[in-house]
Amino acid sequence: MSLCRDKQIKDFLLFLFLFALLFVGTGTVLAIHLVNDMEVQWLTHDEAVVSSLLEQGVSKETIVTALMNTEISADGQSLLAAAGLGKQTESGMRPFFNQFQQSTLCITLCAVMFLLFVLAIGMFVFFWKRKRLYQQADKVLTNYINGDYSCHLPQNYEGGIFQIFSSVEQLATMLQSKNETEHKAKEFLKDTISDISHQLKTPLAALAMYQEIIENEPDNAETVKQFAAKMGISLKRMEQLILSMLKITRLDTGNIVFEKNKCRVSELIAHSVNELTTRAKNENKEIQIAGDDEQQLICDMNWTSEAIGNIVKNALDHTQDGGIVHITWERTPAMFRILISDNGTGIAPEDIHHIFKRFYRSKHSLDTQGIGLGLPLAKSIIEGQGGVIAVQSEIGNGTTFTLSFLTEL
């Protein structure tokens, strides 16, 4: 029975069982005592009667015969009635019976009071523990209502009440998780809006300034052309910023489902650097690709190529004229790795732990291109597919990014 799994009820039932044993034992001892007392009173009464008859000269044989007699005659009943010792006689007229009656009543009353006291103590302890349990539960539930989940309902025992407590704890855990998720979502939205508004201030201010200059010199074709080009750069920067932030936001909120398929790594890399080869050529830089053309990787090709492209773009931003970006890949029994390395300026030790933060720009690279979202976006894409991105760098000796994916069974 589930009722017997409740420790407090189990203890109370055990108490009732022990109380029943005590009741039976007390009753048995009381009965034995009463029988012995009755025997003593009976013997004392017989001794008194015999002593009185002997004093009156009744023969011993007659007395013994009378004591051993078990037959009742009408004359005997009439004699007792006439002497006032019949059934209706008051107990005061029978001193031995009166003494036995008083003794029996006193002992029985004491035994009953003792048993009632034990029963009352046991019930008091049970209901006191139960009340404490309810008070504890009420306090915890009040904390839950107020949003405090630091305390917990007792769940150390089995039983109906503790099953209810367990269900309430599960509900509280769900509510806590929901509240934390909502809080994180609000903080994330707040931070995102703050980041976007902060990052848009500069290009918007620049656009306003360029537009004012163009308005003031409408007839100066060279000025109009120059600042119109700058307006185009600012608008492109704003577009890149907004698109990148939207992508990161969708990734962080889980609104993007990666469509994983088998794809050749060589095709993945080619797709990633397709739009960057022209830039590298114009900047007198080179992108070198080396690896087994037959190797395959299970991933979302479009998103993974964007992540790789962002890392390569970052490498081009931090390499000088004549710089080289190497892209290789390798397979191990447990992992598949894509390595992207360059011979650029490298990353300062104080910056290497911050490069995946949004809008982070090192004081050593303020003059380089980029808005500080490429690497955070690449990290979100790789980790969203169960991969890991790591970086090793040394000032003056370049940087290596390693993208690791679990080998699919």
TrEMBL record:
Its main location: membrane. It is found in: Membrane. One of its GO terms (biological process) is cellular response to phosphate starvation. Gene3D superfamilies: 1.10.287.130, Histidine kinase-like ATPase, C-terminal domain. It catalyses: ATP + protein L-histidine = ADP + protein N-phospho-L-histidine. One of its GO terms (molecular function) is phosphorelay sensor kinase activity. The chain crosses the membrane at residues 102-128. One of its GO terms (cellular component) is plasma membrane. Keywords: Kinase, Membrane, Phosphoprotein, Transferase, Transmembrane, Transmembrane helix, Two-component regulatory system. Its EC number is 2.7.13.3. Residues 195-409 form the Histidine kinase domain. InterPro entries: BphY/WalK/GraS-like (IPR050351), HATPase_C_sf (IPR036890), HATPase_dom (IPR003594), His_kinase_dom (IPR005467), HisK_dim/P_dom (IPR003661), HisK_dim/P_sf (IPR036097), Sig_transdc_His_kin-like_C (IPR004358). CDD domains: HATPase, HisKA. Pfam families: HATPase_c (PF02518), HisKA (PF00512). It is an enzyme of class 2 (transferase). SMART domains: HATPase_c, HisKA. This is histidine kinase. It comes from Faecalibacterium prausnitzii.
